[in-house]
Specification:
Layout: E1 2-9, H1 23-30, H2 35-56, E2 87-93, E3 96-102, E4 107-113, H3 122-125, H4 128-134, H5 140-158, E5 169-171, E6 180-183, E7 191-199, E8 202-209, E9 216-221, H6 223-226
């Protein structure tokens, strides 16, 4: 089994991408005030729809995505399809947008600019053992971002998002391979976790629930599909 990760740069958004959005996505898009934030959201929707449409054999605009939040039923949840055959996660930061598609289990992806998250958040985001390990790293900023992306990828995969404090999720130190070491109140939770290669000062992590070992990750550029030059 393979987990797909599709990448795009902010400048790859095109006017026709907005035509792929459904009414719920158009409403969410309108709530972003900054043009760059709107473009990142549009790109995430376009990549998700184009790639799922290829997998399902349907037009991108016809992919039956749902975005209702499991906690409050409002339309701000992670995109998902009816049934459990394919799972999706979207993340964006700075110039990059990433979409993960998994047929293995619920997936979470997070990408962050290395300098974007303030280390002042250490106390809220890290458990004591993690904060101690961070204090021994040569680069605390990069180390903190590694912790952050790993934890957020896990919380996206489980569907909890930031409703669960990050400090409840314990992951391996930044100088070690990514692993979930513990999740408060869920001792039996199985999650495969990996770091993704950095891109121009951006760190990223990927998590899949229900498996112990990460399947093969196939990463690629969404640019040709976003440009409309290929449908293969």
């Amino acid at each position: 089994m393979t987990c797909e990760v599709w990448w795009a740069e902010l400048g790859e958004v095109r006017p026709w991408h907005e035509e792929l959005l459904d009414p719920v996505e158009r409403l969410r898009k309108g709530k972003y005030r900054a043009p760059a934030d709107r473009d990142r959201f549009i790109l995430g929707c376009a990549i998700t729809r184009i790639m799922l449409g290829r997998r399902l054999g349907v037009p991108a605009a016809g992919v039956p995505l749902r975005r209702d939040c499991p906690a409050c039923a409002r339309p701000h949840g992670k995109p998902r399809l009816p049934g459990d055959e394919l799972h999706v996660s979207v993340s964006h930061s700075g110039r990059w947008v990433a979409v993960a598609i998994s047929g293995v289990g619920p997936v979470g992806i997070d990408v962050e600019r290395v300098a974007e998250r303030s280390t002042a958040l250490v106390e809220a985001a890290l458990a004591d053992v993690e904060a101690e390990a961070l204090g021994r790293t040569a680069d605390p900023v990069a180390g903190f971002i590694a912790y952050w992306t790993r934890k957020e990828a896990v919380l996206k995969a489980t569907g909890d998002g930031l409703r669960v404090p990050m400090s409840h999720v314990i992951v391996s130190p930044p100088d070690q391979p990514a692993r979930l070491l513990g999740f408060r109140g869920r001792p039996l939770l199985r999650v495969a976790l990996t770091d993704l290669p950095r891109r121009d000062g951006h760190a990223a992590a990927l998590a899949i629930v229900g498996v112990r070992e990460m399947p093969r990750v196939a990463a690629g550029s969404a640019a040709p599909y976003l440009a409309g030059v290929t449908t293969a």
